[in-house]
């Protein structure tokens, strides 16, 4: 069993990723921490509570920071045109969800849970890296206690999706992402290099909704607005970005990785660009010296990833 803390900004593809984690038999979801990104921190936290309620999820929800890692940095506009004004495809999520929050902040929840289960917790982060960076800053010792950090974000050998240089999750808090990439823990980056190869059609979602009960029926409704947005890129389908990171946890053999230190550009036209120095490349003395070697996913068996996603989503 993989003990997972899911750091998320629900978000339509976040919702699919959450249901995958809930329904996969090898995942023990021990907590959900929220971050801003697809919507404000208030909206993403409300959405996490709503999904917890609707899907009867036992894991606690803890609210993260609504500010970027570097004090005073301006937050980029939220992508309402992708995820809807309510963050969940404009399905009419109630303004207030009567489900209690965990009293701890997201960074406190991460720190305390990691320390309570040394070497066992996998952090799956599919939004801004702010909570992880804040947890590291408050308790740097957790880097040696976390089993693994699996991130949906970044673009190494392909263009970004919010600028030519950057993918949205990394661009949204580049300083936090750089802090996470360069910390002395094991990081795997599941970015656009692989996620853009994975898509689920509207027809497949409808078929899964017919088999997967009320939970899948809700996911199908949530996803329609998102599919409409993606229609120019993947016809009548949605890219399953965040779910790819969850699949990596249980089926890493479906991914091809490249090892090497990773940095994130934090300003100018390259803000949010992820760069990797592959292991074995030699340069003169530079800011790349002494950094931990991390894994970047560069290819994927998309057919079998999607087969696993579909099989998992309809489990009861």
TrEMBL record:
Hydrolase keyword on record: yes
Keywords from the UniProt entry: Glycosidase, Hydrolase
InterPro entries: Inosine/uridine_hydrolase_dom, IUNH, Ribo_hydro-like
GO terms assigned for molecular function: purine nucleosidase activity
GO annotation terms (biological process): purine nucleoside catabolic process
Species assigned in the record: Rhizobium setariae
Protein name: Nucleoside hydrolase
Key word DNA damage present: no
Domain Inosine/uridine-preferring nucleoside hydrolase: 4-306
GO cellular component terms given for this protein: cytosol
């Amino acid at each position: 069993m993989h003990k997972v803390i899911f750091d998320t900004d629900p978000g339509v593809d976040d919702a699919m990723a959450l249901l995958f984690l809930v329904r996969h038999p090898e995942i023990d979801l021990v907590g959900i921490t929220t971050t801003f990104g697809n919507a404000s921190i208030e909206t993403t936290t409300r959405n996490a509570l709503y999904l917890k309620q609707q899907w009867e999820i036992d894991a606690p929800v803890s609210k993260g920071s609504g500010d970027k890692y570097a004090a005073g940095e301006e937050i980029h506009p939220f992508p309402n045109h992708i995820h809807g004004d309510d963050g969940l495809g404009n399905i009419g999520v109630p303004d207030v969800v009567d489900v209690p929050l965990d009293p701890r902040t997201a960074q406190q929840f991460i720190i305390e849970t990691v320390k309570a289960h040394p070497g066992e917790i996998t952090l799956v982060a599919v939004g801004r890296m702010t909570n992880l960076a804040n947890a590291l800053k408050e308790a740097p010792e957790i880097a040696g206690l976390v089993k693994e950090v699996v991130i949906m974000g970044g673009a190494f050998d392909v263009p970004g999706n919010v600028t030519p240089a950057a993918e949205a999750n990394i661009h949204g808090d580049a300083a936090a992402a750089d802090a996470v990439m360069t910390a002395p823990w094991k990081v795997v980056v599941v970015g656009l290099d692989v996620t853009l190869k994975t898509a689920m059609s509207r027809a497949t979602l409808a078929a899964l909704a017919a088999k997967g009960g009320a939970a899948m029926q809700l996911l199908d409704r949530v996803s329609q607005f998102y599919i409409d947005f993606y229609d120019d890129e993947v016809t009548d389908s949605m890219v399953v970005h965040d779910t790819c990171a969850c699949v990596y946890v249980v089926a890493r053999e479906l991914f091809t990785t490249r090892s090497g230190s990773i940095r994130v550009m934090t300003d100018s036209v390259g803000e949010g660009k992820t760069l990797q120095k592959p292991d074995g490349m030699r340069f003169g003395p530079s800011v790349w010296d002494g950094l931990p070697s991390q894994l970047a996913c560069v290819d994927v068996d998309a057919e079998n990833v999607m087969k696993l996603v579909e099989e998992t989503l309809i489990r009861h």
